[in-house]
Amino acid sequence: MSDLVEPKAATLAERAKAALGRRNLVFVGLMGAGKSAVGRMVASTLNIPFIDSDHEIERVSRMTISELFAAYGETEFRALETRVIRRLMRPGPRVVSTGGGAYINEDSRRLIKKNGVSVWLDADLDVLWERVSKRDGRPLLKTENPKQTLENLMHIRYPIYAEADLRVKTRDVRKDVIADEVLAALAATKG
Ligand SMILES: Nc1ncnc2c1ncn2[C@@H]1O[C@H](COP(=O)(O)OP(=O)(O)OP(=O)(O)O)[C@@H](O)[C@H]1O
Ligand SMILES: O=C(O)C1=C[C@@H](O)[C@@H](O)[C@H](O)C1
Ligand SMILES: [Mg+2]
């Protein structure tokens, strides 16, 4: 028997963290995809800070997203969102969950591409609808037919989300399953 101790294999989290380095892991995708929920879980597994850009916008403006849209409109909201994203894209590592439209905005997308590893949580309409219909507070869905609006947004936005570095298909499974798939996709980017 050899006296040599076999080196312990790196865990999935260790490999994912090594692949990320000092970059930021940025979750993008439509409302309800699970960017906030899964992002928080991934940050906790990697033991790095988690920031949600929607929460950060609400914190600095001391207004809710709905109030911001109502008072200043979407264009001003996007400008504020880009300023917040610029600050969050400083060297990390951290996990940043973005609001659903952030990656669609050209300025924010450029910042994310430069300083982050982006992961698109891709989901089918029914999965998204099931989740967003449970909670209010999404100004873009305050329409006569919000499910149709969500579908229209999918058509417009999915080709742009597809520019993200990684894509994980989310579905009706537990959040930790999706979080592990994100870690595996990230770990696979190294070597
Ligand atoms: N894999 C999952 N299984 C079950 N529920 C989930 C899953 N992922 C997210 N959810 C739930 O779906 C809801 C929406 O998720 P979340 O708020 O994380 O979406 P989001 O992508 O951040 O949306 P938004 O762009 O509006 O911020 C939450 O109640 C969350 O707990
Ligand atoms: O998809 C969007 O454009 C949005 C999603 C939310 O996260 C918020 O950022 C806001 O409601 C806009
Ligand atoms: Mg969110």
From TrEMBL:
<keyword id="KW-0067">ATP-binding</keyword>
<keyword id="KW-0963">Cytoplasm</keyword>
<feature type="binding site">
    <location>
        <position position="157"/>
    </location>
    <ligand>
        <name>substrate</name>
    </ligand>
</feature>
<dbReference type="GO" id="GO:0009073">
    <property type="term" value="P:aromatic amino acid family biosynthetic process"/>
</dbReference>
<comment type="pathway">
    <text>Metabolic intermediate biosynthesis; chorismate biosynthesis; chorismate from D-erythrose 4-phosphate and phosphoenolpyruvate: step 5/7.</text>
</comment>
<feature type="binding site">
    <location>
        <position position="138"/>
    </location>
    <ligand>
        <name>ATP</name>
    </ligand>
</feature>
<feature type="binding site">
    <location>
        <position position="54"/>
    </location>
    <ligand>
        <name>substrate</name>
    </ligand>
</feature>
<feature type="binding site">
    <location>
        <begin position="32"/>
        <end position="37"/>
    </location>
    <ligand>
        <name>ATP</name>
    </ligand>
</feature>
<dbReference type="GO" id="GO:0000287">
    <property type="term" value="F:magnesium ion binding"/>
</dbReference>
<keyword id="KW-0057">Aromatic amino acid biosynthesis</keyword>
<comment type="subunit">
    <text>Monomer.</text>
</comment>
<keyword id="KW-0460">Magnesium</keyword>
<feature type="binding site">
    <location>
        <position position="36"/>
    </location>
    <ligand>
        <name>Mg(2+)</name>
    </ligand>
</feature>
<comment type="similarity">
    <text>Belongs to the shikimate kinase family.</text>
</comment>
<dbReference type="GO" id="GO:0008652">
    <property type="term" value="P:amino acid biosynthetic process"/>
</dbReference>
<dbReference type="InterPro" id="IPR027417">
    <property type="entry name" value="P-loop_NTPase"/>
</dbReference>
<feature type="binding site">
    <location>
        <position position="100"/>
    </location>
    <ligand>
        <name>substrate</name>
    </ligand>
</feature>
<keyword id="KW-0418">Kinase</keyword>
<protein>
    <recommendedName>
        <fullName>Shikimate kinase</fullName>
        <ecNumber>2.7.1.71</ecNumber>
    </recommendedName>
</protein>
<dbReference type="Pfam" id="PF01202">
    <property type="entry name" value="SKI"/>
</dbReference>
<dbReference type="GO" id="GO:0005829">
    <property type="term" value="C:cytosol"/>
</dbReference>
<feature type="binding site">
    <location>
        <position position="78"/>
    </location>
    <ligand>
        <name>substrate</name>
    </ligand>
</feature>
<keyword id="KW-0808">Transferase</keyword>
<comment type="function">
    <text>Catalyzes the specific phosphorylation of the 3-hydroxyl group of shikimic acid using ATP as a cosubstrate.</text>
</comment>
<dbReference type="GO" id="GO:0009423">
    <property type="term" value="P:chorismate biosynthetic process"/>
</dbReference>
<dbReference type="InterPro" id="IPR000623">
    <property type="entry name" value="Shikimate_kinase/TSH1"/>
</dbReference>
<keyword id="KW-0479">Metal-binding</keyword>
<dbReference type="GO" id="GO:0005524">
    <property type="term" value="F:ATP binding"/>
</dbReference>
<dbReference type="InterPro" id="IPR031322">
    <property type="entry name" value="Shikimate/glucono_kinase"/>
</dbReference>
<keyword id="KW-0547">Nucleotide-binding</keyword>
<dbReference type="GO" id="GO:0004765">
    <property type="term" value="F:shikimate kinase activity"/>
</dbReference>
<keyword id="KW-0028">Amino-acid biosynthesis</keyword>
